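Service request form, structural biology core

Requester: graduate student, group of Dr. S.
Request type: structure prediction, single chain
Budget code: on file
Notes: please return the result as structure tokens.

Sequence provided:
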Amino acid sequence: MKTLNVFTQNEFSDWKLDEKDVIDKTQRLLRHYLKCLEDKSCLCGYNYNSITLDIVFCDSVKTHELNRDYRDKDKPADIITFAIFADDETRFVFDGDINLGEIVIALDKVIEGVNRDVSLSKNKEQELFFLISHGLMHLLGFDHQSEDEYNFVIGEQRKALESIGYDKI
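Core staff response, request fulfilled:
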């Protein structure tokens, strides 16, 4: 069994996350994706013993800065993913470890989204793990530039979220 290293940092003081729970569920989501999609992901063909990724929780001011500075988009985002391994054509495995990259989530945008669309009856934890599962798909090299790709990503997210007990996306 591969080691999955998930590191979190919460810079958003208005939501005291249970980071141990976030790490546990993120590892479970990633294990689900590896079981179902590893041969289709950016990991296919690589020999590795462990995977590392970071999740930073912040506010939309920070994602606005990141979006502007790194993506030429002058607006805040609920999630930004820096897919180090998937996006680098010179992929390398260092000491048996693959660094997938970083997921940055604006927790104020998560709360805002849940409050705005109460018809979905999602709570903020469900929305948070929807975003984490989406970020993991990007870290594994999956994108959604076409409708077929989008439907694939959302379909796989639905299965992964069901594996951790969430059924609303």
